[in-house]
């Protein structure tokens, strides 16, 4: 089963390394839908639950946070 997540990287992580993580998500059955480069560094993706745990442990030094992707509204 897959879920939609936003993966945000620390400021020190290069774009090449972020692209490598995105390719790894794809190689493990996920799909990156959007890349972020201006306000924050990262991407949104559909990530299989089986790979999500690996991503969290492999990216411990590079990833700032991973959170579920959801709709945000303002009033």
Automatic annotation (TrEMBL):
One of its GO terms (biological process) is vacuole fusion, non-autophagic. It comes from the Eukaryota. SUPFAM superfamilies: Protease propeptides/inhibitors (SSF54897). Residues 4-74 form the Inhibitor I9 domain. Coiled coil: none annotated. Transmembrane segments: none annotated. One of its GO terms (molecular function) is endopeptidase inhibitor activity. It holds the Pfam family Inhibitor_I9. This is Protease propeptide/inhibitor.
């Amino acid at each position: 089963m897959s879920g939609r997540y936003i993966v945000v990287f620390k400021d020190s992580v290069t774009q090449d390394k972020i692209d490598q993580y995105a390719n790894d998500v794809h190689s493990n059955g996920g799909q990156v839908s959007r890349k972020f480069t201006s306000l924050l560094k990262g991407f949104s993706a559909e990530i299989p639950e089986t790979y999500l745990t690996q991503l969290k442990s492999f990216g411990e030094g590079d990833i700032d946070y991973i959170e579920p992707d959801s709709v945000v509204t303002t009033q």
